[in-house]
Every structure is written in structure tokens, then in C-alpha cells.
Amino acid sequence: MRELMLQGKIDLQSYDKFVLTYGIEDSMTTRRMLKALWSNYVKNGGTTSSIYWAEQFSSPKILNNILSQLDYSGWINVSTVTERHWSEISINEDKLLTYLSSDELMEVRKTKKFKQYVPEHKLSTKVNMTKVNRTYKDTGLIRIGLAMAANTEFYYDCALLNKYKKEIILNTNKGMRKCRELLPDMVHDSASYDEIAVDVVEGLAKEPMLMTMEGNTSDSRGRSIKGALSKVANPIGYKDFRALLTIPE
Q1: pTM, entire model
Q2: What domain range is 133 assigned to?
Q3: Which CATH number belongs to the domain containing residue 19 in this structure?
Q4: Are residues 211 and 133 in the same domain?
Q5: What is the pLDDT of residues 106-130, one digit of tens each?
Q6: Same domain, residue pair 122 and 78
Q7: 187, 206, 226, 230: most buried, per Cβ within 10 A?
Q8: Do the beta carbons of residue 41 and residue 31 sit within 8 Å?
Q9: Cβ–Cβ contacts within 10 Å for residue 104, how many?
Q10: What is the pLDDT of residues 197-230, one digit of tens each?
Q11: DSSP per residue, 26-76
């Protein structure tokens, strides 16, 4: 598990035993749940709703048994507020620290979040994917032009980016500064989103890097959802980078 975690990944231990006890489908769902908890932890130390996962398993009883088993083995923490009819799950950091030191764990979080938010050069030939209730389906909507546009290559003008880098970083983290003013107790460490955003901008300023909008999907009304919208410095969400956008000849 240590080597896997150093790669920024996690997996369900004793998977074969889970299959024997709960079957393949529920075991695969358990594996997905653990990976989702790991992803939320890496992102902001957050939790996930057990209400959502109750709908993913074959029965509430199976979910309760699996949560009890993972809780007993130290992998998760479960918090339930009966009065609010609410329950949430989080990965147990103390368990992670039995495999990695706190410095190693912080470095894994930083590396994984940087990869998550840095723009990439991804090409996609899919023209008919529609996002429906958190899943992607072929509903008959075909958007050839939008898919082609999402594959357009571009890079940022590094000379101008370096010239105005300080101001661009301030603009990039403007939203996070407002959040921290409203929530002064918000966790802030070297793997926080605003720190990673600075790393992304610094990386983009070093040399021109070809990227794309990383594919296109549609919402249920046929509107475009570009794959790179979740990335720091994407030209749709960040006006400074929209001004730096350069199309190669």
C-alpha cells in the first residue's frame, strides 16, 4: 500500500475477501467509495455523504456492514447526526500515517492536486457524450463543431505572463482570498488550492506549453462543457489567461 500511496493512489485491501463476502458489484462499489474518500482527502481533507453511497450499494444493510468493517480496520471515520438525518464518511488520516510520514503525505497531496489542476494537452474524438445525473451517456446529441473546437491547440504568452505574473497570481486566487476572509478557520497548508494555483501559474510561466480544452461533453440541453473547465488558468474561467491565449500557426 505504501508504494501505491506514494504514487497518489489507494486501493481496497483484501479485495478478494470482500468479493467472497459481498459479491463483485458491492466490492467494486466499495473500492470506488474508498478512492472517492481518498480524492476528497487529497482535495481538502473533506468528507462525502453516506446518503449518496447508500444509493450505490445493493442494500442499506450491505453498506452498513461494509462501513462497520472499514471503520473497525481503521480506514474510515463515520459521523452521524440523527436529528438532521445526516451521515458522512471521511478517510482516517491516522491510518494513512501508518504508511507515510506527514511530510510524505503532504508531498503526495501537493503532487496529486497539481496534476489535477494543471492544464493538459488532451485530444478527444467523442462528439456524442452527454452528462446526465453524474454519468455520461449517448442521448443522441451530437456536437461535432464543439468537439473539434475543444481539440484546438493553444499556449500562453510567457513573456507577458512573467511581466504581470504577480498581478495574475493575485487575480487567480481572488476567490480564495474572499473565502478565507469569510471562513478564517479554513485549513491552509502547502497543498491548499490557492498554493497549488500559484504553483500552476509559476509552471506555466517557465516556457510555452501546448494545451487544449480537453474534450467536450454536453449537458442535457446540449450546452457545451469543456473538459478543462476544472483546471487552473483555463481561458474560459480566467480572463487574464484568456488575454494571454496564443494559437500556434
Answers
A1: 0.77
A2: 118-246
A3: 1.10.10.10
A4: yes
A5: 999 899 889 889 999 999 888 998 9
A6: no
A7: 226
A8: no
A9: 15
A10: 999 999 999 999 999 999 999 988 888 999 999 9
A11: HHHHHHHHHHHHHHHHHHHS--EEHHHHHTTSS-HHHHHHHHHHHHHTTSE
